[in-house]
Amino acid sequence: MTTDEHLDAPPALTEAMIAGLPKVLLHDHLDGGLRPTTLIELAADVGHELPATEPDALAEWFVTAADSGSLVRYLETFDHTIAVMQTVEGLRRVARDAAVDLAADGVVYAEQRYAPEQHLQRGLTLQEVVDAVQQGFDDGVAEAAEAGHTITIGTLITAMRHADRGVEIAELALANRDRGVVGFDIAGAELGFPASNQAAAFAELRRENFPFTIHAGEADGASSVHDAVQQGTLRLGHGVRLVEDVVRGEGADVDAADRAQLGRLAQWVLDRQIPLEVAPSSNLQTGIAGTISQHPITFLRDLGFAVTINTDNRLMSATSMSREFTLLAAEADWNLDDLEQATLLAAFAGFAHRDVLERIVAEQILPGYEAARAQG
């Protein structure tokens, strides 16, 4: 290696460096990121029985239950988190905690998603749910600022794909588009509930020029991604099973990007740079791959797809953005340049207004990575 090559190489990533990097999180479920201590306290308040009442034991239960390789079983863990998010106080506290925890992890822009229709069991209206969550985010952003962390949070209002409330929830999102809500999503059991079932909701959102993302290519294959693309999604929630439309090379290096052949769907997503909201640890739990090194995220990145890094459900995966970065660095050889590229892709794929995203990039992301290089 020449001296110039050595100077151009990105610095070695350390745990401290990764912790300090600015991060952008596009795919994180509010009801999948509760602190175990908060969950225990809120469950006691509402009389909900948990599988464990000691924080470490409860955290371990969630990871074990989610680590089944089945999305259906994975989703069952939400019965406990949703149970304590049925009051204004519970929703507000969970949202506040999320903002504080993400900011402490270096997240400078986050989109938090949740389904208001799942929080009506104790008499709240849909709008009351949205108001409580927004107040919690406002509280958390202010608390984070007091601790020296600046974070911007936008909300994605989610409709459950197995229900028949898509238009109603889309209208709820539109009614709050100038009050913290930046986009729409559908979530829940993917297999058997195609995005086209909610076509009327997506048509309404397109008429109103309101952005949306769709969970696709997580528990169902490339056909689900195709369906989401046909609905006009601006991003793909997970999207990793898009690799089913890619023929890998032959020989020892089957993952060599220059030897892969893309099908028409994969080529369309690549050409239009539709961002993939990839959550590596979560994907391992739902059976996408056995290890981070085998996860298709690196292959998709090498093919040129707009890959972003996400947590999905921090409680169920016992993860954070710093942990996801660390795993990719340690097990898939991602370097500082790779992490910066994914972060910038995520920033400009955000649903906040462009001036907001440009300010975050200019004032937080680029200086943060420059500081990391200087430090290295």
Automatic annotation (TrEMBL):
Residues 22-361 form the Adenosine deaminase domain. The gene is add2. GO terms for cellular component: cytosol. Belongs to the metallo-dependent hydrolases superfamily. Adenosine and AMP deaminases family. GO terms for molecular function: adenosine deaminase activity; metal ion binding. Its cofactor is Zn(2+). Its EC number is 3.5.4.4. Keywords: Hydrolase, Metal-binding, Nucleotide metabolism, Zinc. This is adenosine deaminase. GO terms for biological process: adenosine catabolic process; hypoxanthine salvage; inosine biosynthetic process; nucleotide metabolic process. InterPro entries: A_deaminase_dom, Ado/ade_deaminase, Metal_Hydrolase. PANTHER family: ADENOSINE DEAMINASE. NCBIfam families: PRK09358.1-2. It comes from Litorihabitans aurantiacus. The keyword Nucleus does not apply. The keyword Metal-binding applies.
